[in-house]
């Protein structure tokens, strides 16, 4: 015949084990959710950094293009001085065409500098968008993990209750309850 003390102890142990397991699953889920929220925060910081880098890249491109334009205008001016010193008409013919070509090349170079800067800025902007998406996914993961932890906790409690109930029915069948 089964000992009532052992059966009672077994029922208490099943109940306690289920409660502890449920609390442990909830705590584990909360820890995972905290990790996801931390990752989300890091992703948002990366987004801010990438947005700032995009702004800096655009500004740097504008400054470089401006410097290139200034240098080109100085070279065009020097060309005109050399042409004038030769004694030829600087406002017509080949001399004028040379300076027009220099102006065209200078404008092209400035556009290439701006385009390169815009491409770099676009890369940073794209990273910022990806960082935002990563942050959103991490937030969703945190919420999902928390819900799963709550469900697992409730499942552990129900399991423990079922185990205790089974042991109770076993005790009742043996005439101990």
Strand content: under 5%
Q: How does the major sheet shape up?
A: none
Morphology call: rod-shaped
Total beta strand runs: 0
Distance between the termini: 13 Å
Over the alpha carbons, how many angstroms does the gyration radius reach?
A: 38 Å
Task: Detail the poorly predicted runs.
Answer: none
What is the count of distinct domains?
A: 1
- Helix-strand makeup class: mainly alpha
Description:
The protein has 177 residues and is mainly alpha-helical. The chain has one domain. It is 92% helix and 0% strand. The chain has two helices and no strands. It has helices at 4-85, 93-173. α1 runs antiparallel to α2. The longest helix is centred in the first third of the chain and has 82 residues, at 4-85. The two termini are 13 Å apart.
Secondary-structure blueprint:
Blueprint: H1 4-85, H2 93-173
Helix pairs in contact: 1-2
Short key terms for the protein model shown above:
177 residues; rod-shaped; 0% strand; mainly alpha; 92% helix
């Amino acid at each position: 015949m089964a000992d009532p003390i052992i059966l009672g102890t077994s029922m208490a142990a099943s109940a306690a084990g289920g409660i502890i397991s449920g609390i442990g699953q909830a705590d584990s889920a909360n820890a995972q959710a905290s990790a996801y929220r931390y990752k989300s925060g890091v992703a948002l910081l990366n987004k801010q950094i990438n947005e700032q880098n995009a702004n800096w890249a655009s500004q740097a491109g504008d400054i470089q293009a401006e410097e290139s334009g200034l240098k080109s205008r100085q070279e065009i001016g020097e060309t005109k001085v050399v042409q004038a010193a030769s004694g030829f008409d600087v406002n017509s013919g080949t001399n004028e065409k040379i300076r027009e070509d220099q102006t065209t090349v200078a404008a092209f170079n400035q556009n290439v500098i701006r385009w390169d800067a815009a491409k770099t800025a676009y890369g940073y902007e794209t990273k910022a968008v990806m960082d935002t998406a990563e942050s959103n996914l991490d937030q969703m993961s945190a919420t999902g993990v928390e819900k799963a932890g709550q469900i697992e906790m409730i499942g552990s409690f129900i399991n423990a209750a079922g185990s205790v109930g089974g042991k109770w029915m076993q005790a009742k069948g043996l005439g101990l309850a």
